[in-house]
Amino acid sequence: MRLEPRIASPAQTILYPVAAFAATFAFAALLVLLAGVSPLGVFRLVFLGAAGSQFALLETLTRATPLIFTGLAVTVAFRAKLWNIGAEAQLYIGAVVTVVLGTGAVAAPSWALVPLIALAAMLAGGLLLLGPALLKTRFGVDEVVTTLLLNFIVLLFVSLLLEGPLKDPMGLGWPQSQRVVAEAQWPRLVQGKRLHMGFAVAILAALAVWLMLARSVLGYEMRAVGHNAAAARFAGIPVNRVLALTALISGGLAALGGVAEVSGLKGNLTLDLSPGFGYTGIVVAMLALLHPLGVVASAIFVAGIFVGADAMSRAVGVPSYIAEVMTATALLTMGTAIVFTRYRIRWR
């Protein structure tokens, strides 16, 4: 057996991803059957839990907000073949900067403090990814390893901060930071609900990334480097500079997810701020086929599965871990669909 490159027809481009989602739900249905529950009833409860009411829909969009940021971060990096597996670390660094600047270190009105914190966090997240990018371009160090290990290093660093300099003296001994001041908080989009301005910022970020990748010179250079770095270098594209800029943009987007979670939702930093938003962002980006606008739909889909699975679990007793199984299966099936879209199998 060998794989031959091919150009898929428009019908195949649509059919294979649809088949991937169908396979995901079929596998999940099998697991639900083994648990002794009707799959149709479970999927109905998942849908109602994710979008069956205003509260459910707003909770889904709230959960999708950090996933959009991390999904965009992965999309930008992967388009240039910079394998950023460290969006989790970049998200936490963004949260740390938010707490450092937003708990009274900088006195400014909201219209100045909010963008200042966001820009500082994006810079910190970008610099965190710039290190592995430079190691890759200068010394050939595999960025998959360095970015993955940075996740654990940053998480331990955050733990150190929460037990030391950033620990809330009024927190009754719990490892958490002080709450950010009111001027540093992002406003709610719906009064009395948890959906905040971060969702609107995430949509604008997706539009900006799409325009950059599709219409700008830098976007063209990123795609060229991603397709063939040697050919891009031969054509005069500064590959190292493009990868450095890609790292800054990708890390900055992931860091915005941390800003959104602290300033928009939680109000302070804890060690469990992220249940794996950085890793799930990889799934979101792959389900979207690395399309920035598709990331929005993909993030809402994945968030809906998690939010709906929580509601379903309380209703019928099927473990909510079915959501993690579905997202992992979706990643595998979508990866297979991408292979079949780009390659033809030849049997010898």
Structural class: mainly alpha
Radius of gyration: 21 Å
Number of helices: 13
Q: Count the strands?
A: 2
Distance between the termini: 6 Å
Concise synopsis of the structure shown:
With 348 residues, the protein is an all-alpha fold.
Describe the structure.
The structure is a single chain. The protein is mainly alpha-helical. 72% of the residues lie in helices and 2% in strands. It has helices at 10-34, 39-51, 54-79, 87-102, 110-139, 143-162, 197-215, 217-227, 229-234, 239-266, 277-287, 292-316, 322-342, and strands at residues 2-5, 343-346. Strands 1-2 form a two-stranded antiparallel ribbon. Helix 1 packs antiparallel against helix 13, helix 3 (54-79) crosses helix 11 and helix 8 crosses helix 10. The longest helix is centred in the middle third of the chain and has 30 residues, at 110-139. The mean pLDDT is 92.
